[in-house]
Prior knowledge:
This protein has helices spanning 11-29, 49-58, 73-78, 129-141, 156-166, 211-220; strands spanning 2-6, 8-9, 33-37, 62-64, 85-86, 100-105, 108-116, 147-152, 172-176, 186-188, 191-194, 199-202, 233-242, 248-257. The chain is an alpha/beta fold. The strands form two sheets. Strands 1, 2, 3, 4, 5, 12, 13 and 14 form an eight-stranded mixed β-sheet that branches. Strands 6-7-8-9-11-10 form a six-stranded mixed β-sheet, covered by helices on one side. Helix 4 links the parallel strand 7 (108-116) and strand 8.
Amino acid sequence: xxxxxxxxxxxxxxxxxxxxGLPLLKETLRPDFVIVCADGATGGGGLGRNHAAYIRKLxxxxxxxxxCCFYKKDLVEDIGKIPYVLRPYNLNPASPGAGERLFKVxxxxxxxxxxxxxxxxxxxxxxxxxxxxxxxLEQLRAETPYVVVDFHGWASGEKRTFFAAAKxxxxxxxxxxxxxxxxxxxxxxxxxxxxxxxRTGSAESVxxxxxxxxxxxxxxxxxxxxxxxxxxxxxxxxxxEAGDSGxxxxxxxxxxxxxxx
Length: 261
């Protein structure tokens, strides 16, 4: 099975890069399934209902989110009715929506799930992703050997530790949230891992937002994530191939620059 993961979309530039870049990647890589992280797609933080529908239309089979999953009220109201949008699994069970789902792919099934790291998780209060792992994987692997986890978190140490706990137990654990693509991709006992798949949006920016606004934040202490950057749009992510047993065979980074028309 071939799985394409598109790194976190940030703002309008991220939507644009997906629209322009995904058809090219589909043509060259021919993935069986496309996962798109869209935690920053709407205004640089969160995902709106209309953007979710549009990202689906552009070719996403499933859309993952993270700590910003409930930032946009219109999505929160409908997330339980939208099977292709996932919020983190390890939130309070009373939270709306689902943190994992099964999808039919090439006569088989693929499970996709989101886990939220606990270090610097902002206003969210997730339970331990490590404590959730055994029963979580047992439940999914009863249905399919293909299980992909989007681990959304700040700390590389937490992510690397989770990789060690999950190795050999699932197809892939893909890090997200930092919006900076790391170069540590590898396959650990059949589990493809990377600390962060990067971001899809402006490459000439700080996390997809204008550098001047980020500098002002460090000088004055007032955050402003609404100033989206457009310079040098880029689509980033990873491409994973897995065998019939669900074990990953390879993982490679995707980084494709795009022109602005």
